[in-house]
Amino acid sequence: MAPPPASRTLTQGPAGGAAASAAAGAWARWSSLPALWRAASLALFFAVWEIAARSGFSYALPSFTATAAAFWEMLADGSLGTAFAKTLYPLAIGLAFSLTVGIAGGVIMGLRRDVEFLSLPIFIVMQAAPMAALIPLVTFVYGIGLTAKVMAVVLLAMPVITINSYKAVRNVPPSLTAMARSFMGTRRQQITHVILPAASPMIFAGARLGVAEGFSGIVLAELLITPTGVGDLITFHRSVANFAHMYATIAAIVAFAVIAVSLLQRLETALFRPEKRSQR
Amino acid sequence: MTLALDKVPDGANPPAATPAASPPIITVEGVSKTYDGGVTALSGIDLAFPAGKLAALLGPSGCGKTTLLKIVAGLLAPSAGRVTVKGRPVTGPGPERAFVFQDFALLPWATVLRNAAFGLELAGMARRQREEKARHYVAEVGLAGFEDKYPHELSGGMRQRVGLARALAVDADVLLMDEPFSAVDEQNRRKFQEDLIRLRELENKTFLFVTHSIEEAVYLADRIVLLSPHPGRVSQVIDPDIPRSDDVEAIRRDPVYLDIVDAIWRGLRRYAE
Amino acid sequence: MTVWGVRVPRMASLAIWLVVWEIVGQLDLLMLFPPFSAVVMAMGDVVTSASFAEAARITLGAYAAGLGLAIVAGVGLGLLMGLVPAADRLLNMWVNIFLSAPLSALVPVIMILFGLGTPTVIVTVFMFAVWIIALDTRAGVLHAPPSLMEMARAFGASRLQRLRIIALAALPEILAGVRLGVIRGVKGVVIGQLLVSIIGVGALFQLYSQNFLMAHFWALIVLIFAFALTLADLVGRLETRLEYYAGARHG
Fold first, then answer.
1. Which residues of chain A lie closer than 8 angstroms to C183, CB-CB?
2. CB contact B74 to A (< 8 Å)
3. In a designed cystine with B141, which of A4, A116, B161, B273 is the match (CB 3.0 to 4.6 A)?
4. Mean pLDDT to the nearest integer, A262-280
């Protein structure tokens, strides 16, 4: 089919192709780099930070060392752990929902033309549009409780997961399904033995993007809706001009998100990609 | 649009002269294929293929040779006409036919052994049984020792051998091969072609394969169906009479081989760009 | 559904959803959705208000500035990473981290560094858009056929000429990156203004939600979504045009 320009992304690799492979490749590249380069890369970033802070660029930019100290302090007094636990609860619920419904929905969309016709436009809109704008509306209706936060996560995470699962199914090489057909495979066998395994790399890429978006959603919700968890820690330390602590909290949640996404990829390789394991 | 028959040298008999020892295993009667866009890929094809022989569909691109093969396989439905295999009309894929794909169509996440056993896996055969069988055919196509490798660790030629083992393992009477050697480099292609000749002696199967290489068709096939393009029609059927059993090296020096290659090329050169 | 071409049925299915929306709204099934007709009505109100014109001006200005900076910096960074292996090794990891990180969490930092105003929104747009542009540019440079470089050298092209050839060869990937950057930038401008919340559409959202103007809120969202989709569509068209010439490279 010849897609119209707005849906071009549909036929061209995973949504935000480079983003998917970026998250995907980050860990692999990281671990394949020589230790020296890894160290240099980290050192460069922290050195730039340290110098920028000491140069007096802004009163609100604490040095890297001060931030690291604040991080250890918050880790030791348990405030960081408590905040993370509070933040991760709605995030986990939202991601569990987004992954189950999103992957199932996307796969069905890829398999059935009628479902595709009905629901694809909605997901194209949701993926290209700034869904974050809906977060205040959700708060407006559902108040400041758990529901609103879970919905914030789902709103941001689910579209990319669904679209990627859909594209993954549609991008399965036709010769593989023809092969299953030629060997008398039933439609069910075609799906379980060929389509799903062949689609799984791109489905996982979408899942990783979705998890990253989910982190964005929960942080936004906590900053916009009501300060709890990590959002509370950020807002509080900002209000008392405790900038090192605020930076440390933000760095911690960003690092946590990046590590979670990388771990997801290792999990995928370990569980589902035997051909990649044997390469090592 | 038929090639001049009188140019075909001695040793290539018209099909009628071939002693019809066995009834044809594949018959194609009045098959036409028009795609949704209105492109006519095949028009009025009538063909018959004897059992136990190796036949080639040869022609320039656009002649519909792959379409015809897929119709015989039951992967495509003809717009008109019918195909029978072993006397039964083809309505879809069947257990008496197995397909070898141009791009190999191997599962990248499965080992050589599992790929070779995949047809049997779909048929519901128990694991131990199907792996034993697959192991036999993996060895027969010359891949013993590679059972636990993954497709990306193999060369193109080796991958296609896996595709061949998978097709052999399901015990089909007819092997349908879609340009099986086109993605294989030259040395491996020659080796593979020699192996196929040996394999044909060993396995009592009927082979039907698509190729765009004149040399390959003449080297391998007992019957060559020449198709002309736009729309695809049968322009000529040639049965080369080249002895293949004694020395496969000698085939390419056989004067009959050289004459037929030359005659076909003279007929086809007008389709070259 | 490709029977009548793709465009018509796509719209048709969206129309079905609008009807569903209207029904849900009329029957008060979900508090979240006022009737679509009410949203359309409110849209007139929103568009004609003076505060909308002001918000649109600020938003578009910040967006254009942030995206412009991101394109310049992103392409530059991508060229650097594609051409200088050492730079790639040093920076690649960080570009990848920023690409998959929850950037919303960084907005509070941007806010205290750049103040509660347009500069913060500009920087947010920049942060959302720049990394994907850099990474796609880098990919474009690395995918440029080596024979092209050998050709340039063989014919004695100068350093600057070679750089130009590389940049042109990488153009399809650069444009793909820009298209994704455009979409991400819209998300950035919305998130930035939501968090700053005293300027542009952020202030409008604040106004509508404080006064419980659901239909107005939705009208603004529909307008922003339409803007985002139109923009993505336009860049997509531009990309198709340029791929026509770039297609020569893929045969």
1. 128
2. yes
3. B161
4. 74
pLDDT digits (tens, 9 = 90+) for B50-80: 888 888 888 877 788 888 888 888 888 888 8
Residue B30's identity, in one-letter code, is G
**Within 13 Å, how many C-alpha atoms sit on residue B213's CB side?**
17
Segments making up each domain of chain A, as ranges = 65-277
Mutate to test the interface with B, among A175, A183, A195 (most CBs of B within 10 A): A183
Calculate the alpha carbon distances from A125 to A16, A94, A99 in Å: 15, 20, 19
* Chain A residues close to C217, C-beta within 8 Å: 136-137, 140
**A130-188: pLDDT as tens digits:** 888 888 888 877 877 888 899 999 999 999 999 999 999 999 999 999 999 999 888 99
Identify residue C230 by its one-letter amino acid code.
Answer: T
Domain range list for chain B:
1-55+62-94+223-273
Query: CA torsion, points B84, B86, B87, B90, in degrees to nearest 10?
Result: -30
| Closest to A244 in 3D by CA, of A77, A82, A59, A88 | A59
Cα C240 to Cα C153: distance, rounded to the nearest angstrom? 30
Token pair for C27: 């029957």
Q: State the residue for tokens 């959002």.
A: A231
pLDDT at residue number A34: 65
Q: Tens of pLDDT along chain B (273 residues)?
A: 334 444 444 444 444 444 445 678 888 888 888 887 778 888 888 888 888 888 888 887 778 888 888 888 888 888 888 888 888 888 888 888 889 888 889 988 888 999 999 988 888 888 898 888 889 889 888 888 888 889 888 888 888 889 989 988 888 888 899 888 887 778 888 888 888 888 887 878 888 989 888 888 888 888 888 888 888 888 888 887 777 766 767 777 777 778 788 788 877 777 765
∠ Cα C223 C229 C230 (to 5°): 85
Judging contacts by C-beta atoms under 8 Å, the chain C residues touching residue A243 are: 112
Contact check, Cβ <8 Å, A134/C240: no
Neighbours of B (≥3 Cβ pairs closer than 8 A)?
A
For residue B225, list its beta bridge partners. Answer: B57, B237
Q: DSSP for A224-253?
A: HT---HHHHHHHHHHHTT-HHHHHHHHHHH
Which positions 89-118 of B are in contact with A (Cβ < 8 Å)?
Answer: 92-95, 97-99, 101-103, 105, 107-109, 111, 118
Do residues A162 and A109 lie in contact, with contact meaning Cβ atoms separated by under 8 Å? yes
Residues 6+ apart with CB under 8 A from A249: A74, A80, A83, A230, A233, A234, A237
- CB C166, CB C80: distance < 8 Å: no
Residues in chain C with pLDDT < 70? 1-11, 243-251
Half-sphere exposure of C4 (CA within 13 A, CB side): 7
Tokens 């690799």, located at residue: A13
Sheet hosting strand B12-13, strand order edge to edge: B12-13, B233-240, B223-228, B54-58, B206-211, B174-178, B97-100
Contact B258, B208 (CB under 8 A): no
